[in-house]
Design brief:
The structure holds 2 protein chains of 2 kinds.
Chain A lengths: L1 H28 L4 H6 L5 H11 L5 H13 L13 H36 L4 H15 L2 H15 L15 H35 L2 H9 L3 H12 L1 H17 L2 H6 L5 H10 L3 H29 L1 H4 L3
Helix pairs in contact in A: 1-14, 5-6, 5-8, 5-11, 6-8, 7-8, 8-10, 8-11, 9-10, 11-14, 13-14
Chain B lengths: L1 E12 L2 E12 L3 E5 L6 H9 L6 E9 L2 E2 L5 H7 L4 E4 L13 H11 L5 H14 L18 H13 L5 E5 L7 H18 L2 E6 L2 H7 L2 E6 L2 E7 H6 L4 H10 L13 E14 L9 E14 L3 E5 L6 H8 L7 E6 L2 E2 L8 H4 L2 E4 L13 H6 L11 H14 L16 H13 L5 E5 L7 H18 L2 E5 L3 H7 L2 E6 L2 E7 H6 L4 H9 L20
Parallel strand pairs in B: 3-8, 3-9, 6-7, 7-8, 13-18, 13-19, 16-17, 17-18
Antiparallel strand pairs in B: 1-2, 1-4, 4-5, 9-10, 11-12, 11-14, 14-15, 19-20
Classes of the chains: A mainly alpha, B alpha/beta.
Chain lengths: 315, 540
């Protein structure tokens, strides 16, 4: 187990190092100089040069890279060129929306996908399975922004159960915050739940044809009990993989949904920063997202070991 | 006293008749054997008793166990019969246990689901049952997972969970087919002992007549879903009435006619070969551990010779064949083929590779299912120095197919359209198509039914005489090795511990291990065998 853990940690650190290098130098070679962008077209070269010096842009890339990374490690992301505030403040503000939204959507998608996948697998070939496969196909095909607009039309405009957009912060109360995130979370969860349910179904069906399922049936376990006690855990590996990928996607990939619902999330922050050539914001937020993805994958790797003793105890 | 009466049992799956009018009775404490070739309906009979038949199957007739007709029972009632009144063990111990559950829990589960036991009580009994199958807790913790024990040990765990509630009858479906001879002998002895001591009945299914001779009190011979003959074991072997039984018996002891072979010059030379694998370290800074697969092995094969290689699983047989083929690098020693040294990896010259071909056990697994036979058999052509034109290739493929007894039209078929025996013929055709000098047969006939096996052995023999081939015949089946090889190597723990002419090794083994191996190999008692071994196999 220790061996496995250590190898996972080493791979985690290596991925982070490589990711930071790639992000920094890719942004480095992108045309567009933040200093001249900020000062406008008519600025004199001297003014641009002095702003560059102020921002530290006159240093060599290598030195700037190390400055940036050492800042990241202690939580100092630098100061945004356009907002003129520490990036960490911006990120903390935005993550209060994005992280709960991602977790909410993930919770919904899991809560839907698990039972649906189980039902489809246990009634394989039956009407329920047929219907579920059809619906999930539709769920994957429907673009989530369009589905989001339908939700707004029905639940916000017609029924007036939810607000059509915006987020007033958590100060107004927990349930109030949850309420304003519900429609976006449902819109995000639809596709994810459809994918997850299908993965769950096929992983379970695969597992149900294994020899040890027959052994369990020969012991006298009912079909239902075999499914829950023997098949589910063995089917978890592919499901966990997809779950990990989905969380990363939900955290970073909600840009469109954030726009539809007018939510001040990380996606919108990065979108605006790119338009305004606020490169240090882009760098830092992208790095943060990469960090989140890598950490989530690390946690998924650890859950594999919890699920599968062969990873935990050699073999 | 009669425990189980099966009468008029018919099964069809999606309208196709699988079993027809099967009738037999099993007495209490009796070992009842089923023999027959694959597809004869042995396993289906067992699954019918358990009502675990595949989807779409239809079952009629009567299965009376201890006065109760199982056919009338609901699925819910069947769940309480399975595991409590009928236990069952299967062929593949490697996959028969849940990989994410400890062995203790898997045995305890049988006790818990049938009620009456708390978890801790069930665990205590599970420990006793594991000890009962010679897996005592001081040596095998119940907290072990299946991947941490060997195949034979896994089969013991399967037996433990099947007998945990002392069922009235235990069904064993090919329980030792996947195990090597010594482990097989131990498991068979264990089953016999359990049947006697726990006063269970045993329904024993196998394709191996020698195993059935050792185990069963009464035997039913099955062919295409029917019982064609049923007798006490001794009477069956001494006086077979049905043609099919005779054919089966003949085929299982079949020895191809040996034609006089010209013993040529030495072709393959293996000298002091050594191969070890790195083992994963338990802790990071530990010294690197190695698993030595082959330690200092030397032997040679002459042109036209058949050399047998026998030993238990894990003794290094497969590693050895891989090093000869240049698929696995050597750490020490030298292998030469026709005087040229074998170097593993891409550096190995094609002219050398084309002298050696290999045929594996699983004929389906070694073909790409998306290619037609013509392309599959043509695969080795890239080893030739001169590339052949398409028509030349096709011609040679057809010649090879005809040579192994297939038809010209088979070129355009896919591999799933062939039976197991035909697939193995295709595998042989693929090996033969570039006219190699040495063919390594790695368990090449082990997965085949006896009558098909007899035909393949004949084919191999013919090809050998025609092309003056050398064979390295790797098998765990000692009967076959005895029948077809000139010399035998016995391997244990990566070393060759005995070597000699086949008849000498089998009649007068010197090494203790060889003696044990031969003893473990099941045999039909000599007084039961009559002189009619080589008859009747051809019509199969």
């Amino acid at each position: 187990m220790l061996h496995y853990l250590l190898s996972r940690i080493i791979s985690l650190l290596l991925s982070l190092a490589v990711a930071s290098l790639v992000i920094f130098f890719v942004i480095e070679i992108i045309p567009g100089d933040p200093a001249s962008f900020m000062l406008g077209l008519n600025a004199s070269p001297e003014t641009v040069a002095s702003l560059k010096a102020e921002l530290g842009l006159d240093q060599t890339p290598l030195i700037r890279y190390f400055d940036w990374v050492s800042g990241l490690v202690v939580g100092d992301f630098g100061i945004s060129y356009t907002y003129k505030v520490p990036i960490s403040e911006l990120v903390v503000d935005r993550i209060q929306v994005s992280l709960p939204l991602a977790l909410y959507a993930l919770l919904l998608s899991t809560a839907i996908a698990f039972p649906v996948g189980l039902i489809a697998a246990s009634k394989r070939g039956g009407t329920a399975d047929f219907g579920i496969m059809g619906f999930t196909q539709l769920g994957i095909a429907v673009p989530n922004f369009w589905f989001a607009m339908l939700l707004v039309l029905f639940f916000a405009i017609n029924l007036r159960w939810f607000s059509a957009g915006g987020f007033s912060g958590w100060d107004a109360g927990f349930w109030y915050g949850i309420k304003s995130l519900t429609l976006p979370a449902i819109a995000l969860a639809l596709t994810q739940a459809s994918i997850l349910a299908r993965v769950m179904r096929s992983a379970l069906i695969d597992t149900l044809s294994q020899d040890y399922i027959r052994t369990a049936r020969a012991k006298g376990l009912s079909q239902r009990r075999v499914l829950i006690k023997h098949a589910l855990r063995n089917a978890m590996i592919p499901v966990l993989t997809i779950l990990g990928l989905q969380f990363s996607f939900l955290l970073a990939g909600a840009i469109i949904i954030e726009n539809v619902f007018f939510l001040p999330g990380l996606g919108r922050l990065i979108f605006q920063a790119i338009i305004q050539r606020d490169l240090i914001v882009v760098e830092s937020v992208v790095m943060l997202m990469v960090f989140a993805v890598i950490v989530v994958n690390f946690l998924v790797d650890l859950t594999y070991a919890m699920v599968d003793p062969r990873l935990r105890r050699g073999g | 006293m009669t425990l189980l009466t099966v009468s008029g049992l018919n099964i069809s799956i999606n309208e196709e008749v699988i079993l027809k009018d099967v009738e037999f009775t099993v007495d209490q404490g009796e070992v009842f054997g089923f023999v027959g070739e694959s597809g004869s309906g042995k396993s289906m009979t067992a699954l019918a008793l358990m009502n675990l038949l595949p989807r779409g199957s239809d079952r009629t007739g009567q299965i009376i166990l201890d006065g109760k007709n199982l056919i009338d029972l609901s699925e819910r009632e069947m769940c309480s019969i399975r595991g409590r009144d009928i236990g069952m063990i299967f062929q593949e111990p490697m996959t028969a246990l849940n990989p994410v559950m400890t062995i203790g829990n898997q045995v305890a589960e049988t006790l818990i689901i049938h009620g009456g036991y708390s978890r801790s009580e069930a665990m205590t009994i599970a420990r006793e049952k594991l000890a009962r199958v010679e897996m005592p807790t001081n040596r095998f913790s119940p907290d072990l997972y299946p991947h941490e024990i060997s195949g034979g040990q896994r089969q013991r765990v399967c037996i433990a969970l099947a007998i945990a509630l002392r069922p009235k009858i235990l069904i064993a479906d090919e329980p030792t087919t996947a195990l090597d001879v010594s482990t097989q002998a131990q498991i068979l002895d264990l089953l016999k002992l359990l049947v006697k001591e726990e006063q269970m009945s045993l329904l024993f299914i196998t394709h191996d007549l020698a195993v059935i001779a050792k185990m069963a009190d009464k035997v039913a011979v099955m062919q295409t879903g029917r019982i064609v003959e049923m007798e006490t074991t001794r009477e069956l072997f001494q006086d077979m009435k049905h043609d099919y039984s005779k054919k089966l018996f003949a085929a299982s002891n079949y020895i191809p006619e040996t034609k006089t072979k010209t013993r040529g010059v030495s072709f393959l030379e293996v000298r002091e070969v050594y191969r070890a694998y790195k083992l994963p370290n338990k802790r990071i800074l530990d010294k690197q551990n190695y698993n030595v697969a082959i330690r200092g092995v030397s032997f040679s094969i002459s042109k036209g010779e058949s050399l047998g290689l026998v030993g238990e699983s894990g003794c290094g047989k497969s590693t050895l064949s891989r090093t000869i083929l240049g698929l696995d690098p050597l750490q020490k020693g030298q292998i030469t083929v026709d005087g040229v040294e074998v170097i593993s990896g891409r550096k190995m010259p094609h002219s050398l590779r084309k002298k050696m071909q290999v045929v594996f056990q699983d004929p389906f697994g070694s073909f790409n299912p998306r290619h037609k036979v013509g392309r599959l058999v043509a695969e080795p052509f890239h080893l030739l120095e001169k590339s052949l034109s398409v028509s030349e290739q096709r011609e040679r493929v057809i010649t090879a197919l005809l040579e192994v007894g297939l038809r010209e039209t088979d070129v355009d078929k896919y591999i799933h359209e062939f039976s197991g025996g035909q697939r193995q013929r295709i595998a042989i055709a693929r090996a033969m198509v570039i006219k190699p000098d040495l063919v390594i047969l790695d368990e090449a006939v082990s997965a085949l039914d006896v009558s098909i096996r007899a035909q393949i052995l004949d084919l191999l023999n013919e090809l050998q005489v025609q092309h003056n081939l050398s064979y390295l015949f790797i098998s765990h089946d000692l009967t076959v090795v005895r029948a077809v090889t000139d010399r035998v190597l016995v391997m244990q723990g990566g070393k060759i511990i005995e070597e000699g002419r086949t008849d000498r090794i089998f009649d007068r083994p010197q090494h203790d291990y060889t003696k044990r191996l031969l003893q473990a190999s099941p045999r039909i008692p000599a007084e039961w065998v009559k002189e009619e071994t080589n008859q009747g196999y051809h019509t199969g």
